[in-house]
Design brief:
By secondary structure, the chain is an alpha/beta fold. The chain is 26% helix and 27% strand. The protein is elongated, with a radius of gyration of 22 Å.
């Protein structure tokens, strides 16, 4: 028999899991997501990506501001769910909510736990220079990503990957993993294993204050910093154009040969010296402008060797 599920999620990352669960015949009786927020030029209320898909599928949508009231708990229990599936929901679930479904609540997390518990595992894995990451399904408890793990899939991180690239690779991988986990739960064969106490790290929310590029760092660290923050909030630096410093976000780059003073432009292909080695900028964005390829940027802003990014 297919499971009777509550789905709880908010951003694009959660959408593939919702779609796969529905496509595999599970009865998604309710979707919980964050309330619409003003967005765009007209600041109209914009439903979350999960809400948009849920309404397209004809699934009831709830957007409570808290799950800690007796009324919220009663409404949650009234769905009579076998399990809740949680993917980047953005709200803490109290113990009473975790205990409400018959089999509990299961979270899809975008790291190889216990590494990178917390809010920004995709960004932090890239920024730390990790060689691999992955997705895990765990049964939730009240701790921060401390629940017992059911299943995992691994994925290599290359120096070519930005946070957007890794996000887009992990989202369908996680959807498939959650479908398999719910299949195991349905058959009574889902095995749980406690997380190791060794290797625990925390993926703190990205602070815009850490986005400025430090050209004194080795080239690979600079590259991973740039890619881990691309496209948002975007690693940035300043470039003097027409005598005024202009803020430039660098969105994609590659390792390159060369050396010089940190931040120095080494050639007409936007190769920039780092503390050790160099990177070549491939995509960037001037403040208030659209992102562009390096070649397009150079056509409008020609730079000579010896110019300096700061």
């Amino acid at each position: 028999m297919p499971l009777r599920l509550i789905f709880m999620g908010t951003p694009d990352f959660a959408v593939p899991t919702l779609l796969e669960l529905a496509a595999h015949g599970h009865e998604v009786v309710a979707v919980y997501t964050r309330a619409p927020k003003p967005a765009g030029r007209g600041m109209k209320l914009q439903p979350t990506p999960v809400e948009q898909e849920a309404r397209r599928l004809g699934i009831p949508v709830l957007t409570p501001t808290t799950l800690k009231t007796p009324e919220a708990l009663a409404e949650f229990r009234a769905h009579n769910a076998d399990a809740a599936v949680v993917v980047a929901y953005g709200m803490i679930l109290p113990q009473a909510i975790l205990d409400a479904p018959r089999y509990g609540c299961f979270n899809l997390h975008a790291s190889l736990l216990p590494r990178w518990r917390g809010a920004a595992p995709i960004n932090r894995a890239i920024m730390a220079g990790d060689a691999e990451t992955g997705v895990m399904v765990m049964k939730m408890d009240v701790g921060l990503d401390t629940g017992d793990v059911a299943m995992a899939e691994r994925l290599a991180i290359t120096d070519l990957m930005t946070a957007a690239d890794l996000h887009d690779a992990l989202a369908p991988l996680g959807a498939d993993l959650m479908v398999r986990a719910m299949g195991g739960l349905e058959r009574g064969g889902l095995q749980l294993k406690k997380q190791s106490e060794d290797g625990v790290t925390y993926a703190a929310k990205i602070d815009k204050a850490e986005a400025r590029i430090d050209w004194k760092r080795p080239a690979r660290e600079v590259l991973r910093h740039i890619h881990g923050l691309s496209p948002f909030p975007g690693a940035w630096c300043e470039l003097a154009t027409d005598g005024e410093p202009a803020r430039i976000k660098i969105l994609r780059c590659e390792l390159a040969k060369g050396s010089g003073a940190p931040g120095e432009v080494l050639d007409d292909g936007l190769t920039i010296a780092c503390g050790d080695g160099a990177i070549r900028i491939l995509e960037l964005q001037r403040e208030g402008k659209a992102r562009m390829k390096a070649a397009d940027f150079l056509r409008g802003t020609p730079l000579k060797a010896g110019a300096r990014f700061s």
